[in-house]
Design goal:
The complex is a heterodimer of chains A (284) and B (295). By secondary structure, chain A is of the alpha/beta class. Chain A has ten helices and eight strands. In chain A, helix 9 links the parallel strand 6 and strand 7. The longest helix of chain A has 18 residues. In chain A, 48% of the residues are buried. With 295 residues, chain B is of the alpha/beta class. Chain B has an eight-stranded mixed beta sheet, sandwiched between helices. In chain B, strand 2, helix 6 and strand 3 form a beta-alpha-beta unit. In chain B, helix 1 runs antiparallel to helix 2, helix 7 runs parallel beside helix 8 and helix 9 packs parallel to helix 10. Classes of the chains: A alpha/beta (284), B alpha/beta (295). The complex binds guanosine-5'-triphosphate (2 copies), potassium ion (K) and magnesium ion (2 copies). Potassium ion binds next to loops of chain A.
């Protein structure tokens, strides 16, 4: 391409920043190639321009929310109840995100009902119930070791009866490699459809922002099992950057909807592409 | 992605056929492939660079003609180097004092509470009197979670649900243990981020007040590039004795193991590979090396 040494140095430096943010080699190479193409085409000069080109290219890889008209914590018109099923591997922050999300929906004037379909992990039901109390939303639970699909079924049923705006189903953490547990999710989905045929309207995959390249595999496998429609990235209040989500969003065309920035009820934010990309290039 | 590293390396070597020895020139491309494989496995990029520099040194001047393929030779050198870096002999946890205290620390959701239960069960099976202590006073139902696990494995859990001082709870647990003949006290703590000053102070105070004979840092094996920052920050505050790698029952390559080992130079003592209380094992550096390399 006929680059000067400074350009190569800049690109190397860029590569380092991206890789150190968990963007992963493949996506990093893709970003750098896109920049190189543009740079030679646009006859680029100077690092300030390069910086904005870079940010533009990364933003371009992050896919858009499908319902762009949807305001913050709004639900689509004519969809009531709006059913969200929350899935993900162990310990990523599903239950906590549900607690925070309920609070936001409630604040937006929506009535919310939660389903405690993690009947497996020790005290998971109690954890969700405590969040329900904290936020002031009802939780449907049948206790530990009961059938999670039955809980989901009853929750959706209760939601319809009580005329709820939003129903959120918590599920047990599961590694995507566990075939039985993955097909259990498919079953939970199917059972809910007996009550609300187009439920769940959103299957939200929660990813831990400190997870590395395995998050890519998680996205692939959960999408196969449940048609994931949105992402939430948690624990971005630490020094981890969550860069792997760029490749995920690009490859699977799933929008990131929320980010978790703490353990408190208010620590949930609507994902902002620009801010996210800026934080990638911010030194800790 | 790199199901077979040596095939990749062979490919990188193909253009170099006919050269009997590994030289500065022909090793460059292969070392790049190795570095890429390590980063793909979530080894920290700086660590990956250092490690591949070492591998280059080791590979230099080796006779490739005597081996089955140069790729295999390089893979073996890499595998040996990773195994060496992660460990040598396995190190046991230190159980000393009356009672002996084991402090558990780590990020949110890494698997501390589950591991606390597993370790208690493991020690109980060795015939020891163990007491679990619930010092996570923040997470909703954290105490209950430990109590449920304690019940499952038949180990008593000390808790003070109304007390908001982790140090006081832990001290009371020790007094309780002395009185009731528990020889080991395992202290489960809340998850915390290394940047959370207040919470890092709390765990440092716990360590100071309890003088544990073993402090374990529990880390999720799926952790990416940030593993080194976190491990270093926890080690700076706690000078922990060992590392526990969790969730290895999945398909993560687990490069964090290498990064942490390299950066804090503390042994990995246990691996956790499932949600069940029995899913605990010792750490084997050679297995971990193969896993990181995708073999
Ligand atoms: N710092 C920080 N901690 C978080 C965030 N979200 C969740 N956590 C913490 O992460 C830990 C795990 O959260 P949970 O909500 O229990 O995760 P989960 O995915 O429901 O876990 P399982 O149900 O066991 O699979 C808890 O200690 C939470 O307080 C976040 O955005 N930032
Ligand atoms: N698959 C798998 N899951 C695990 C393993 N260890 C823990 N878990 C699960 O990971 C999730 C988090 O585990 P916890 O023990 O609650 O983690 P923690 O570090 O105590 O979490 P906080 O107290 O919130 O910081 C739970 O769903 C556990 O069942 C493991 O080795 N394999
Ligand atoms: K961050
Ligand atoms: Mg949960
Ligand atoms: Mg815990």
């Amino acid at each position: 391409v006929g680059k000067s040494t400074v350009d190569d140095e800049v690109l190397d430096n860029l590569e380092e920043i991206l890789v150190a943010s968990d963007v992963g080699i493949n996506t990093t190479v893709k970003i750098i190639e896109r920049i190189q193409n543009r740079v030679s085409k646009d006859k680029y000069l100077g690092t300030t321009e390069l910086d904005s080109i870079l940010r533009e290219e990364v933003v371009a890889l992050l896919s858009d929310t499908s319902d762009t008209d949807l305001k913050e914590f709004e639900t689509p018109p004519n969809v009531k109840p709006y059913v969200i099923m929350v899935v993900g591997v162990n310990g990523v922050g599903k239950t906590t995100t549900i607690g925070k999300l309920s609070a936001q929906y409630k604040k937006a004037g929506k009535s919310v009902i939660l389903g405690a379909a993690d009947t497996f992990r020790a005290a998971a039901v109690d954890q969700l119930k405590l969040w329900g109390e904290r936020v002031g939303v009802p939780v449907i639970a049948k206790g530990m070791n009961t059938d999670p699909s039955a809980v989901a079924f009853e929750t959706v049923q209760a939601g319809v009866e009580q005329n709820a705006d939003v129903i959120i189903i918590d599920t047990a953490g599961r590694l995507h490699t566990k075939v039985n547990l993955m097909s259990e999710l498919t079953k939970i989905k199917r059972v809910m459809q007996k009550v609300v045929p187009d439920a769940p309207h959103d299957v939200m995959l929660v990813l831990d922002g400190s997870t590395g390249q395995n998050a890519m595999v998680q996205a692939r496998e959960f999408t196969k099992a449940t048609e994931v429609s949105s992402l939430a990235i948690t624990k971005l209040d630490g020094t981890a950057k969550g860069g792997v989500v760029i490749g995920i969003s690009d490859e699977f065309q799933i929008p990131v909807r929320y980010i978790g920035v703490g353990e408190k009820v208010e620590d949930l934010q609507v994902f902002n592409k620009k801010e996210f990309v800026d934080s990638l290039f911010k030194k800790n | 992605m790199f199901d077979n590293l040596s095939l990749k390396l062979d490919k990188a070597f193909q253009t170099l056929k006919g050269q009997g020895r590994i030289t500065e020139i022909n090793v460059a491309t292969t070392v790049k492939e190795i570095r890429k494989a390590l980063i793909d496995a979530d080894v920290n990029y700086k660590v990956a660079k250092e490690v591949t520099d070492d591998i280059r040194e080791k590979a230099m001047g080796q006779n490739v003609l005597t081996s089955i393929s140069p790729g295999q030779l390089l893979t073996k050198i890499t595998n040996d180097e990773l195994t060496h870096l992660m460990g040598g002999e396995s190190v046991d946890i230190t159980i000393e004092g009356n009672p002996a205290i084991i402090l558990i620390a780590g990020l949110q959701g890494s698997g501390k509470t589950t591991f606390s239960g597993k370790l208690a069960s493991y020690l109980k099976k060795q015939g020891r009197q163990v007491l679990l202590t619930a010092c996570d006073i923040y997470r909703p139902a954290a105490i209950k979670q430990l109590q449920v696990l304690g019940e499952q494995i038949g180990v008593e859990v000390y808790a003070e649900p109304e007390n908001k001082d982790a140090v006081k709870i832990a001290k009371a647990a020790i007094a309780h243990a002395k009185k009731n003949n528990h020889r080991i006290v395992i202290v489960d703590t809340a998850g915390r981020l290394a940047v959370d000053e207040e919470m890092m102070n709390e765990i440092a105070r716990l360590k100071e007040a309890l003088a544990p004979s073993e402090t374990l840092f529990v880390v999720d094996s799926m952790t990416g590039q940030d593993a080194v920052n976190t491990a270093k920050a926890f080690n700076d505050r706690l000078n922990f004795d060992g590392v526990v790698l969790t969730k290895l029952d999945g398909d993560t390559r687990g490069g964090a193991a290498l990064s942490i080992r390299r950066v804090v130079e503390k042994p990995i003592k246990f691996i956790s590979m499932g949600e069940k209380m029995e899913a605990l094992d010792r750490f084997y550096p050679d297995r971990m090396a193969s896993r990181i390399l995708g073999m």
